[in-house]
Design brief:
The complex is a heterotrimer of chains A (286), B (266) and C (307).
Chain A (H helix, E strand, L loop, with lengths): L1 E11 L7 E12 L3 E5 L6 H8 L7 E6 L2 E2 L5 H7 L2 E4 L12 H12 L3 H14 L4 H4 L9 H13 L5 E5 L7 H17 L3 E5 L3 H7 L2 E6 L2 E6 L1 H7 L1 H6 L6 H11 L11 H15 L1
Helix pairs in contact in A: 3-4, 3-6, 4-6
Chain B lengths: L15 H4 L2 H17 L3 H18 L4 H7 L3 H14 L4 E5 L2 E4 H27 L2 H12 L9 H31 L9 H7 L1 H24 L18 H23 L1
Antiparallel strand pairs in B: 1-2
Chain C lengths: L5 E13 L5 E13 L3 E5 L6 H8 L7 E6 L2 E2 L6 H7 E4 L12 H12 L3 H14 L15 H13 L5 E5 L7 H17 L3 E6 L2 H4 L4 E6 L2 E6 L1 H5 L2 H6 L6 H11 L11 H36 L1
Parallel strand pairs in C: 3-8, 3-9, 6-7, 7-8
Antiparallel strand pairs in C: 1-2, 1-4, 4-5, 9-10
Helix pairs in contact in C: 3-4, 3-5, 4-5, 5-6
The chains are: A alpha/beta (286), B mainly alpha (266), C alpha/beta (307).
């Protein structure tokens, strides 16, 4: 199981004066079980790119193959595969519309045509997963919740479709650090416990470096870097800075210490890693 | 999905038409539209066509834009033409089964199509050469005399300004919500008419909620910027009538008089 | 402090509203705060801490239920000065889309002065100056929907500037922007503060932004919890973390090193400060090491000699 992108290009407004090539030949395989981070500044083609993964956009040339099926085809099989790729857009709480939370979460599974019993099970599981108690919240209106809670309902609505792949576009935008932490705990849980392949688009380098097992950097519709986050942050910092992409604050700190000639390892992703590296550096001196 | 609509769009420029006062342009366009319906002879249509083409050239906009103005409305034009061709009684030209095309029908059909095309072209010229803000300013000024009988001129103009400002934003939003719901398996394309109407609920509810939220926030932002209705408000760009406007409206009135005379003679 | 040096003074301000279930909610509780002219103050706190509610009191979009707020010498409860206050204290909101009124950038910037009844040639001049001050002159005739988030916020700031305010209150202006847009907005307000002397009140939950302020106010549950310089606030790593707020990485690392027995100050908030502190720690341990090496060498040589 994997998503394969075979040399895809995408052009907006073909044949109009506004014609613009947003993706310029991307080839990539997203393996099952990966946690893929995608970064790039606004306008780098990130959003266009992720919309190809579940067939919301079809490539102008090239093909998107999900679990061996070309998702641009009109067969039922292709449709089923498109639904294997769940998509959480930016500010997903803006798509809520049902009277109750449970009904809203059930919207996706119902569209898949699963039977009522299964819909109910999926709704319960999804709510439990995002930390909303079924008995308390199921019959409440989603519109009376806090912003962070609404977002979790929206994510539950996608999780209830039981996708193999989950794309999240800036899931923490506009949340405070508490809300951000909650959302990411859930995403990590989905990845670890349910084995869902996660594709995370984010500006927050700290979050990417902490969670992603692989990172791709997009610029002008092309993949410019592809590798382990640590490797990219440590060895390609100048490219990231040229592209106007932030480097995680911890990496910036460690780099500035190393720049002073302090013997500190740059194998550092978190604050605790940094503390450890500094203590070891100190011992090394001793 | 929704970004190739040019109706009501403004194309900046510095031609004579661009520089005309919006009030003069609105009045002129209205008079000319009446004039179009006075035309009923080939000569009259020739005059209308010549005047329209002249105005188009004066605007210094690419002629291609005129075609894009007509293109989305061609169904209406053909439909109107068809109705007149097939339903007007007269001397039969072609008759096949129930289809009966008469000489008068053909003439009427062509006339109606020509009238519609000129009407669309001339009013597009108005919106192409007038920025939305100047257009609403013009409407506000023209409506001002009617405030005494309770026409809320300023409020209507402000509503139009805000509507124009938010149309692109709401189109983007529609696109985004459609995609988000499609990703959850929603179907906006297939099914019976009733089914499709029902399927619009997941799109319309979020759209309305968002529009209300925007309206709310905008109202607060406007209040914070000291907005308190039209009283004592000034404008950065005051409207002013110049000789160009007199020439423009004068030309239209002369053409209208000529057309009225031709109509009278017929 | 002289009276004319005070921009905003909040005295025992409480704000109580009734929610949909009919319960009274204290959005603000007994807040005392003084903002001086020319200051750059940042108000931080999580969602629901009351920071936005407080901000809306500064230009009379809300009025206190108890206590009072004096803005530019006028009590906000006195309705006759509302428009004066709103002209002097401008406001920029979170969502860049929902505060731009007109379909052309310069027309939007003109909206405020138009409401104030300023003559048209002066409006023109103010609009040009305001757009230049936020580096948006080139976009004067653009449609706002074609701008990036950071550019839209700069237009919103220009719209406030054209009213010639003494103070600008920004209510989470960067929450919906990408890093580049955030930097644009932050640079712009710092420039306005330094060059034009405009008082800035920045409400944010981004620590990186708050750390650039002269003074920080921390809000929690409608109350003012703390206030002080960025150093006084951000060295309280544990308190801020428990509030759900971020702290500078250097401060957190320094505290953890200190707790691990390393001799670093807990008064550190920047990377450079941590770097300097570690240099001295490392060089002193290096010194110790060298001493111990030379000591062992000398003992070796002594023992040789003895032999």
């Amino acid at each position: 199981m994997a998503i394969q992108l075979d040399n895809i290009t995408y052009t907006y407004g073909v044949g109009t004066p506004f014609e613009k090539q947003a993706l310029k030949g991307i080839s990539l395989t997203i393996e099952n079980g990966e946690f893929l981070g995608i970064i790039g500044h606004t306008g780098s083609g990130k959003s266009t790119f992720v919309q190809h993964l579940n067939g919301l956009l079809h490539p102008t040339t090239g093909a998107v193959i999900v679990n061996g099926v070309d998702v641009s085809e009109k067969t039922d099989e292709a449709k089923r595969m498109r639904h294997k790729v769940g998509m959480v857009f930016q500010y997903p709480e803006h798509q809520l519309f049902e009277e109750t939370i449970a009904q809203d979460i059930a919207f996706g599974p119902k569209n898949l045509g699963v039977d009522e019993e299964d819909v109910d099970r999926r709704v319960r599981e999804a709510m439990q997963f995002v930390g909303l108690d079924y008995d308390t919240y199921a019959d409440r209106s989603p519109f009376h919740l806090s912003g962070g809670q609404m977002r979790r309902v929206a994510i539950a609505g996608v999780v209830a479709m039981e996708p193999d792949f989950l794309v999240l576009d800036e899931p923490s935008a506009g949340l405070d650090p508490f809300g951000r932490e909650e959302i990411f705990e859930e995403i990590i849980k989905l990845h670890k416990e349910k084995g869902i392949t996660v594709i995370l688009v984010s500006h927050n380098m700290e979050d990417i470096s902490r969670m992603a097992s692989r990172l791709i950097v997009l610029d002008k519709g092309q993949v410019v870097l592809d590798g382990k986050p640590l490797e990219i942050f440590n060895n390609h910092r100048h490219i990231l800075q040229q592209l106007g992409v932030d480097v995680p604050p911890v990496s910036v700190l460690v780099e500035s210490l190393r720049h002073r000639g302090l013997p500190i390892s740059n194998e550092v992703l978190t604050v605790d890693d940094a503390v450890q590296a500094i203590i070891e550096g100190g011992c090394h001196v001793k | 999905m929704l970004n190739n609509i040019t109706i009501g769009q403004y194309f900046p420029g510095n031609s004579l038409l661009h520089r005309m006062d919006p009030r003069a342009k609105i009045i002129g366009t209205t008079i000319f539209i009446i004039a179009i319906f006075l035309a009923n002879t080939p000569v009259a249509y020739g005059i209308v066509a010549a005047f329209t083409i002249g105005a188009m050239l004066l605007s210094r906009l690419p002629m291609q834009l005129m075609w894009t103005a007509i293109k989305p409305l061609w169904i209406i034009i053909v439909f109107t033409m068809g109705i007149h061709i097939f339903t007007t009684p007269g001397e039969s030209l072609i008759s096949y089964g129930i289809i009966n095309i008469t000489d008068r029908g053909l003439a009427m059909g062509l006339q109606m199509a020509a009238r519609l095309i000129f009407l669309i072209l001339f009013s597009s010229l108005l919106t192409y050469t007038t920025s939305p803000i100047r257009l609403t300013d013009g409407i506000e000024h023209l409506l001002n005399p009617f405030r005494r009988i309770g026409v809320p001129a300023h409020e209507l103009a402000m509503m139009m300004t805000i509507a124009l400002r938010f149309i692109p934003t709401l189109l983007d939003e529609t696109d985004r919500i459609m995609k988000a719901q499609s990703a959850r398996g929603a179907d906006f394309v297939t099914g019976s008419l009733i089914q499709r109407a029902k399927n619009m609920v997941p799109l319309l509810v979020p759209l309305f909620i968002s529009a209300f939220r925007r309206a709310d926030e905008l109202a607060i932002a406007m209040e914070a910027r000291c907005y308190r209705g039209g009283e004592n408000r000034t404008r950065m760009k005051e409207l002013s009538i110049t000789y160009v406007d007199f020439i423009g409206v004068g030309a239209i009135i002369i053409v209208t008089i000529i057309l009225a005379v031709l109509w009278w003679l017929n | 402090m002289k009276e004319q040096d005070i921009m905003i003074e909040a005295n025992h301000v409480s704000h109580i509203y009734t929610d949909e279930n009919g319960n009274d909610v204290h959005a603000l509780k007994d807040v005392n705060l003084t903002i001086r002219r020319g200051e750059f103050v940042s108000i931080i706190g999580t969602n629901g801490s009351g920071k936005s509610t407080l901000a809306k009191h500064f230009n009379v979009l809300l009025q206190p239920s108890e206590g009072n707020i004096i803005v530019c010498g006028h009590d906000t409860l006195d309705e006759s000065h509302i428009w004066d206050i709103r002209q002097h204290v401008g406001m920029v909101f979170q969502n860049p889309d929902n505060q731009i009124v007109a379909a052309v950038v310069e027309e939007d910037v003109a909206f405020g002065p138009e409401n104030l009844g300023i003559p048209s040639d002066e409006i023109r001049q103010r609009v040009d100056e305001a757009l230049a001050a936020v580096n948006m002159t080139d976009y004067a005739e653009h449609g706002p929907h074609l701008l990036s988030g950071g550019q839209k916020q700069r237009v919103a700031i220009a719209g406030v500037l054209a009213m010639k305010p003494d103070c600008i209150v920004l209510d989470e202006p960067t929450a919906m922007l990408d890093p580049k847009g955030r930097q644009e907005v932050l640079d712009t307000i710092h420039r306005l503060n330094k060059e034009e002397g405009i008082t800035i009140i920045l409400i944010t939950h981004f620590m990186e932004e708050a750390v650039t302020a002269d003074r920080i106010v921390v809000m929690k549950n409608g109350m003012k919890l703390q206030e002080g310089t960025p150093r006084e606030i951000f060295t309280q790593v544990d308190t801020l973390k428990s509030l759900g707020l971020d702290v500078p990485v250097a401060a957190e690392v320094a505290l953890k090193l200190y707790r691990n027995g390393m001799d670093v100050s807990t008064d550190i908030i920047t990377n450079d400060e941590l770097g300097r502190a570690l240099e001295s720690v490392f060089s002193s341990s290096k010194l110790e090491k060298e001493i111990s090496i030379s000591l062992s060498k000398s003992t070796e040589s002594i023992s040789k000699e003895v032999r």
